[in-house]
TrEMBL record:
Keywords: DNA-binding, Transcription, Transcription regulation. Residues 142-208 form the HTH crp-type domain. Pfam families: HTH_Crp_2. GO terms for molecular function: DNA binding; DNA-binding transcription factor activity. Transmembrane segments: none annotated. This is Putative transcriptional regulator, Crp/Fnr family. GO terms for cellular component: cytosol. InterPro entries: cNMP-bd_dom_sf, Env_Response_Regulators, HTH_CRP, RmlC-like_jellyroll, WH-like_DNA-bd_sf, WH_DNA-bd_sf. It comes from the Bacteria.
Amino acid sequence: MAAGTNRLLEKLPAEYRTTLLARMEAITLPVPVNLYEPGVVPKYAHFMTSGVTSVVTFMEDGNGVEVGLIGREGLVEGMHLLGAGLLPTTGFIQVDGTALRMSFAELRREFQSSEMLRTLILAEVQAQNLVLGQIAACNRLHELEERLARWLLMVSDRLESDHFTLTQEFLAEMIGARRTTVTLAAGSLQRSGLIEYKRGHIKILDREGLESAACECYPIVRDLIETLYLLG
């Protein structure tokens, strides 16, 4: 499937997909645009077509940690469709991208009336929730270098690229670690010849080696997402 499309929408029957796309707007999303705020019903729903959105939980002291990662495989506001409860998370652009945007209220009506759309979105939300659970366990149980390798691979998968830009500060926030320890972990991966990291620019040099350096969580979260698109 070519870049610039959304994998979730691509699974819909062509005729229905065309009618849905006619009600959407293609937009550009630069870093660090917020797509939704905690405790608020979103104004829009975003089907990502490139780039990466981070779903982050922030504490009262301002510290945050990433609990979700969405690229063109999904719908950023899928969790908001499940009920009236408001989410405590924030969704913002982590890597510059694009999306197909639709009024959230309009998508909610479509979600309620279309069984095929509802079934597909529910499957995607289930997969994202399973990924969230795996990431939570990973952040608690695995070493920083393993987690960093896993996270870099997840970003690469969603961008479909081995080259992207992320600052040390951003990396630290996403994996819930101090900047100094992230610097050490990234330096170790670089000395091993797995990545090149300079002034926020990351290039994966040895993907197979990076997968070996990552914890067991990477193949689990990768397969959870890929299985979703092999079904149906």
